[in-house]
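Researcher: Please predict.
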Amino acid sequence: MDSESVIKNINLAISYINLDDVDLDFDSVRDETFKKELRNLFQKLKDEPNIDSRTETFDEIIQMVRGQLKSLETVGQILDFLGFTIKMLFVEKSTTTTDLSLLNELFQLMPAQWETDPVKVHLITKIIYETLNADFNNTMHVITSIICINNKLGFYVALTLFWALYLNYFKKDSHHYYKMYNVDKFFKLLMTCDFTSGKQDADSLFKLLLLTSIYQNNVLLNKDNPEDHQIFQEFFKVTQKDCEKLKDWLINVKSLIEANNSLVKSNQSSDVLMLLEFLELDIIRGISQDGNQQSVMDPLTDISHATVSKDE
């Protein structure tokens, strides 16, 4: 099984949002005609039982919102639409693919100076994370979507979202979530994992490895000069010793699991095999190649298919 197959077989199920939980008020938008038509389409979406018709209505909503984006001018309007757009990504079960282009377009509208503004990165991250109610799978889906849209602001927000999930995984206070940290912080938390003290839940371990892969591919193996990231440069200062440290940790985890499969608590033996293959073929192989075949903006291959089998 190759790396792509391993990742696609990780079952990361999206949690869909109820239509009634989408705010259609848009206080910052004065176009009452737009708001009225949008409410009518949402009502149509609720009342329509036919899947094909629901998909058409959903696409109509996306197109209407896309048209409205062109008229956004103020910070308030852009951020108002951000929360709505995030919810729209997870609201419609009948669509076969999630329309992420709307989110990408919204990031392109944000002023270039925002990418070097920690306050804006903090605010955007907070809006996205709290809109998704800290749901691991949905947040991971957003991370892997915006981290590769060739937009520095999106890249920094994606990494800040990574840190929100990473800190949450280690049960840190939420008021620390919406900012980036350096490589020392990454390892300080990672090294608290003790795989000899008792059984490790397979789902939880998959989540940690998914997060580790995001950090490895986009920070540890990032070929940019730290200075390229200006105000955020301290978070990209990485040495070869850091890469070796992670590699050693990963190999140790793999060896422990291989020596004693019972360390991983799971109802299915295939979960342990999947875990080992994911470790070897995606993460360890990636860092062993020293990033020569890794793209800075490319986290897990087609991770939009990837997730863990249970929600947080």
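Model: The two ends are 28 Å apart (CA to CA).
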